[in-house]
Amino acid sequence: MLQRLFFRLERFGGLSEQEKHALQEAVARTRLVNAGEDLSGVHEYHCNLVVEGLACDYMLLPDGRRQITNLHVPGDFCDLDLLLLSASDRSISALTPVKIAIIPHHKLLDLAERHPRILLALWRDTLIDAAISRECIANIGRRNAFARIAHLLCELYIRLQSVGLVRDGAFELPLTQTDIGDATGLSVVHVNRTLQRMRADGLITWVGHQVTVRDQKRLEAAGEFRATYLNLRVDPGHGSGDRLARRFVVYPT
User: What architecture is the 3-245 domain classified under in CATH?
Assistant: First the structure.
């Protein structure tokens, strides 16, 4: 059930079977969340880990407009920061039907005390979440519409690829154009026109919920995308992490 999480954490070095078992045993239960349902208010004493589906962090403005600040794919903790913080500065919502693994705070704190490598891996994971949020700010604040959507698609492609959810350049992305607009600060009309242009330019195809990246290099260039902020590189000498590192796309710094 936690295989996607193990993929994420092992980018920083291999976890032992004992450490994986300890993480698995920390799961108290699973929960199914309907699309559009908020997770806010249900994570005071536990953390939510996405097992299946897509969720997002968002801010709601007084006039009802929504700004998505991060997307959560399988293997992501939605609210690991609340392990140490007393209040959240954003809301969390399921964009699709989502399966959540619930891990109580006291169990995660116990794991951190007993398994230093798990502590370091989770710490690094929160730092990467912060890097993703900073990139989101730059994307919305300084890039044009075409670059914003191209960057978002590149990021999702790499993040999903790193947890084994891309096949032959294709991945499932059951987002609406409203979701994409809320993640990029664009109107639905602008999103629609931009996606049509991307298709016409041969960068992607998007049929139903399946996106296929046809020209990754050109899409990255269009989005001014460099994957270094996602920290997919695993340094040599990390033991069992070396084997898993070969599954990841590694970008030059």
Answer: Sandwich (2.60)
